[in-house]
């Protein structure tokens, strides 16, 4: 049992100015309510509304980062908090930056021999010279296009021909200067939350949408979540091991969530790792924690207690 009186003055950072601001506001509000309900001396703070240096005058001792996307999940806020001498939740600067960059993360996993789909990287400077038909052919004819450093499926698109790839690249370049084009994996999508180096029960997501996009994640009433996910004990062990390996390879720490696809042959493929996942009552990490016997408040306090 964690003695919340030892946690000191706490700030929940939420909002920010990334494309995921609205999701972050919801996460932060839920975490703040949970922490206050558990007796933690916690306040909320939106870095888009005031400079982060204001935290010094507030005598804050530790921060729960509920920011998503650029500026909050990419190492920027983590570095600022280190300069200010404030303990914070989740990964350090390196792990946050690597996990946010899908291209760098993918390259690390590939080089370490971890299972991940074939891919191509396209830079905005080379956009005019890209042979979209050739790229698509090399990736099996169907691909997923992803801006390198966005989350919540922002700017992503499935493509099945050269014209669609060209348009998807143009869209993705509005969000980032580098784009990941990844071979499409047909199959079930899973996610594995990790807390203090321990994988939680896997979750399987099912949506009638083309893929598990922003609408399916945050707006749809038709997305289904299964926890337990339906994997047998051996498969659950396999996916947990893969997720933990991916998490550690990217220098992620504290807590996080690894997204994984499984093809029709039963092989698992790493998609990405999130260092500041959604934290509403209906989010995936709390869902997995509940399956493991942990309430939302207990999860929030445990994450906070791991601040370093």
TrEMBL record:
Keywords (A to Z) from UniProt: ATP-binding, Cell shape, Cell wall biogenesis/degradation, Cytoplasm, Ligase, Magnesium, Manganese, Metal-binding, Nucleotide-binding, Peptidoglycan synthesis
ATP-grasp domain boundaries:
106-305
- What Pfam families does the entry give? Dala_Dala_lig_C, Dala_Dala_lig_N
Q: Which cofactor does it need?
A: Mg(2+); Mn(2+)
Q: Which GO terms describe its cellular component?
A: cytosol
Q: Which GO terms describe its molecular function?
A: ATP binding; D-alanine-D-alanine ligase activity; metal ion binding
Catalysed reaction equations from the record: 2 D-alanine + ATP = D-alanyl-D-alanine + ADP + phosphate + H(+)
Q: Which InterPro entries match?
A: ATP-grasp, ATP_grasp_subdomain_1, D-Ala_lig_Van_CS, D_ala_D_ala, Dala_Dala_lig_C, Dala_Dala_lig_N, PreATP-grasp_dom_sf
Pathway field of the UniProt record reads: Glycan biosynthesis; Cell wall biogenesis; peptidoglycan biosynthesis
The UniProt entry annotates the active site at 20, 152, 283
Q: How is the cofactor bound?
A: Binds 2 magnesium or manganese ions per subunit.
Residue positions binding Mg(2+) 1: 259, 272
Q: Which domain of life is it from?
A: Bacteria
Q: What is its EC number?
A: 6.3.2.4
Q: Mostly located where?
A: cytoplasm
Q: Where does the record place it?
A: Cytoplasm
Q: Which GO terms describe its biological process?
A: cell wall organization; peptidoglycan biosynthetic process; regulation of cell shape
In this chain, Mg(2+) 2 is annotated as bound at 272, 274
Q: Which PROSITE patterns does the entry link to?
A: ATP_GRASP, DALA_DALA_LIGASE_1, DALA_DALA_LIGASE_2
Family in the record? Belongs to the D-alanine--D-alanine ligase family.
Q: What does this protein do?
A: Cell wall formation.
NCBIfam families noted in UniProt: D_ala_D_alaTIGR, PRK01372.1
Recorded protein name is D-alanine--D-alanine ligase
Q: What is the lineage of its organism?
A: Bacteria, Pseudomonadati, Pseudomonadota, Gammaproteobacteria, Alteromonadales
């Amino acid at each position: 049992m964690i003695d919340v009186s030892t946690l000191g003055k706490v700030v929940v950072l939420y909002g920010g100015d990334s494309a995921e601001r609205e999701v972050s506001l919801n996460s932060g509000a839920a975490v703040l309510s949970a922490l206050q309900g558990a007796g933690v001396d916690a306040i909320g703070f939106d870095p888009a509304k005031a400079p982060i240096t204001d935290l010094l005058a507030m005598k804050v001792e530790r921060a729960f980062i509920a920011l998503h996307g650029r500026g909050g999940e990419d190492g920027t806020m983590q570095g600022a908090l280190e300069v200010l001498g404030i303990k914070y939740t989740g990964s350090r600067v390196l792990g946050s930056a690597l996990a946010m960059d899908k291209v760098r993360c993918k390259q690390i996993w590939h080089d370490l021999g971890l299972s991940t789909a074939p891919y191509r990287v396209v830079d905005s400077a080379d956009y005019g010279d890209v042979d979209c038909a050739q790229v698509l052919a090399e990736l099996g004819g169907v691909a997923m296009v992803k801006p390198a450093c966005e989350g919540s499926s922002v700017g992503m698109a499935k493509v099945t021909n050269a014209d669609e790839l060209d348009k998807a690249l143009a869209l993705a370049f509005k969000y980032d200067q580098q784009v990941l084009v990844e071979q499409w994996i047909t199959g079930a999508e899973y996610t594995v939350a990790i807390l203090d180096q321990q994988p939680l029960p896997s979750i399987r997501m099912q949506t009638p949408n083309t893929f598990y996009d922003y609408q399916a994640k945050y707006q749809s009433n038709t997305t289904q979540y299964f926890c337990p996910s339906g994997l047998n004990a051996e498969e659950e062990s396999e996916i947990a091991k893969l997720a933990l390996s991916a998490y550690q390879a990217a220098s992620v720490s504290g807590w996080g969530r690894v997204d994984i696809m499984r093809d029709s042959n039963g092989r698992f493929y790493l998609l990405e790792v999130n260092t500041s996942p959604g934290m509403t009552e209906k989010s995936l990490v709390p869902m997995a924690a509940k399956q493991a016997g942990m309430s939302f408040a207990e999860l929030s306090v445990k994450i906070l207690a791991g601040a370093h």
